[in-house]
Amino acid sequence: APDISVTNVKAHLTQFQSIANANGGNRAHGRPGYLASVNWVKSKLDAAGFTTRVHSFTYGGATGYNLIADYPGGDANNVVMLGGHLDSVPAGPGINDNGTGSASILEVALQMKATGFRPAKHVRFGWWGAEERGLIGSAAYVNSLSSAEKSKIKTYLNFDMTGSPNPGYFVYDAVKGEFPAGSLALQQRLEADFKARNIPTELIDVGNRSDHRAFMAAGIPVGGTFTGAEKIKTAAQAAKWGGTAGQAFDRCYHRSCDTTSNINDTALDRNADVIASTLWAVAA
Ligand code: PHE
Ligand code: CA
Ligand code: ZN
Ligand code: ZN
Ligand code: ZN
Asked: Which family does it belong to (predicted)?
């Protein structure tokens, strides 16, 4: 798998920041900065030869959009899907939440093409709308699929907040919690990938807090990584991960200060590298 360039990922974050700046400071559902974000990501994927489509839905009196991108080739009956939400809250530009996941899977997608990756499985990406309004876009997408189409999706990997400024390294818990992610194989693969880079991880019960939820509810194995949001980093966590104990993983979570300054480059790079290595292994 390629080593993903954090410089490239950060260039995509700068684009999201510019889009927010030009559109009232946010990229929220129903606001012009959201559709501008969709169109910009779509243009990058179209230029790289992906088959893209915009899936529209209605929520809260506004049209919402999911961007779906298929990498040409691979077994259409054996689909690996990666996704993250592209919308922000209205309060700010949403660069860590979730410019990071969005930009990282975009860069991984572009590197598939750049390296000429020819996976045996079919690979599809989703950028979800209206996550911040209650996981709306991803649910609309899953509900739009026939049961035959759903059953072709063998894996869904979700990335929501992967560059938190005071980062933790969390992997979605497959077993424990109210809504366990369900796939022990994906959990263990992600854990092993961090471990191979000498990065300690913790499991986290992400419950129903992001877009993996609709896939899980459809019986699709899901997994993901996360660097933390509003919760406070403990002394034990600061001892193993560095950063500041007694402070939130992301003090700018859902605030106007969630800008390009609100990013830990190391966490962003490590997660992007893990995303690529996981995709290369799972789709091989
Ligand atoms: N989905 C949450 C948000 O967008 C963030 C989150 C992701 C929280 C994963 C917990 C686990 O605000
Ligand atoms: Ca890298
Ligand atoms: Zn959020
Ligand atoms: Zn989020
Ligand atoms: Zn690296």
From this structure: Belongs to the peptidase M28 family. M28A subfamily.
Give the CA distances from residue 255 to residues 7, 23, 88, 124, in Å, rounded to whole numbers and listed in that order: 24, 16, 10, 31
Residue 96 CB less than 6 A away from ligand 1: no
**Structural domain of residue 19, as residue ranges?**
6-283
Candidate of 209, 211, 222, 258 to mutate for ligand 1, largest count of ligand atoms within 8 Å of Cβ: 209
Paired sense of beta strands 222-226 and 170-172, if any: antiparallel
Give CA separation, 102 vs 57, 149, 150, in Å.
Answer: 20, 24, 22
Number of structural domains in the chain: 1
At 27-73, the pLDDT tens digits run 999 999 999 999 999 999 999 999 999 999 999 999 999 999 999 99
Q: Which atom of ligand 1 is nearest to the CA of 206?
A: 11
Q: Whole-model pTM above 0.95? A: yes
pLDDT in tens, 230-280: 999 999 999 999 999 999 999 999 999 999 999 999 999 999 999 999 999
pLDDT digits (tens, 9 = 90+) for 166-180: 999 999 999 876 666
Q: Residue 92 CA to chain centroid, in angstroms?
A: 18
CA of 131 to the centre of ligand 4 (A): 7
149 catalytic? Reply is no
For residue 101, the domain's CATH number is 3.40.630.10
49 in a structural domain? yes
The predicted complex's ipTM stands at 0.94
CB contact at 8 A, 170 and 202? yes
59 CA distance to ligand 3 centroid (A)?
A: 17
Q: List residues, by chain if needed, whose CB lies under 5 Å from ion ligand 5.
A: 269, 273
> What is the Å distance from ligand 1's center to 76 Cα?
30
